[in-house]
Each structure stands twice: as C-alpha cells, then as structure tokens.
Amino acid sequence: LTLATLTLFLLLGGVTGLTTLVVHVYKDTKAEGSTFVSLSGKVMQVSPAETAVPLLAAPVLDWTQLEGVRGITATYQDPRRGRVTAGLLIDGVQWHNHTATAFSIQSGFATELRVWNGEVSLL
User: Fold this and answer.
1) Which end of the chain has fewer surrounding CB within 10 Å, N or C?
2) Helix ranges (DSSP H) in the chain
3) What's residue 35's pLDDT?
4) Are strands 100-106 and 119-122 parallel, antiparallel or unpaired?
5) Residues of the chain where predicted confidence (pLDDT) is lower than 70
6) Residues 112, 62: Cα–Cα separation, whole Å
C-alpha cells in the first residue's frame, strides 16, 4: 500500500511538472493591467477605457477624450412615454467651445445630442 501510494504521488507530480513546463514553453502572451502583450513586449490588445462622466462636463473634456466617445447612456423625459433611458451610439462629435459640444448619434428617433451652455437637448 505504501509503495503504491508513493508511486501514485510520483506519477502525479511528474505529470503536473510536465504540464507546467509545456504551458510555460508555449505561452507567448500575458496580461499587464488593461494591456495584452507578447513576451517580447509587443502590445497585442488594449482594453477600452470606460469612465462615467456627467453630460454637462462634455465641453470641458480634452479633444482626445471626446473623440473616443463611442456611446452615451441618457435618461430624459418624453412627453408621451414619461422617463426614458436610451443607449446612444455616437458616430461623431463637434466641439464648439468650453460650453458647447454636439454629438452626432445613430438612432431612429434622434440625430444629435447637444450639450449647449448648460442645457442638454436630444434633437
């Protein structure tokens, strides 16, 4: 019984060691924070940065941040349906000044979301 147990543990240890070695040898990528890189340091993939920001802050964001906006979740009051929450896909942005920005949206019910002098409008 003791020899059989020892043999079993040696075999399991050998298989575990071999599996670890094979995975280590053939693995050529790793995750570093939000970046997926090869072991040589080449960036393979980057996770998108998602930050919740109030719409009224849009005009004061950096251009690179505004240009990267792909979607906006907006809640508004519809005269017929009451309170509505909509996910809006953004296909363009226009920055006018530090109080006015317009987002072009892909939607069947509106074409533009404006943040204009402290007012937000869905057109």
Assistant:
1) N
2) 2-26, 63-67
3) 76
4) unpaired
5) 49
6) 20
**CB-based contact 37:27 (threshold 8 Å):** no
pLDDT for position 89 = 94
**Structure confidence at residue 25 (pLDDT):** 79
Smallest CA-to-CA distance from 48 within 70, 15, 24, 26 is with 70
Contacts of the segment 90-99: beta carbons below 8 A, 24+ positions apart: 93/66, 93/67, 93/69, 95/59, 95/63, 95/66, 96/59, 97/59, 98/59, 98/60, 99/59
* pLDDT at residue 96 in the model: 94
Write the single-letter amino acid at 101. T
How far apart CA 7 and CA 90 sit, in angstroms, is 64
Yes or no: say if 106 and 113 are a contact pair by the CB < 8 Å rule. no
pLDDT at 11: 95
Tokens of 87: 């996910």
CA-only gyration radius of the chain, Å: 27
72: left (phi over 0), alpha (psi -120 to 50) or beta: beta
Side chain identity at residue 102, one-letter code? A
The residue length of the chain stands at: 123
The two structure tokens encoding residue 121:
């409008």
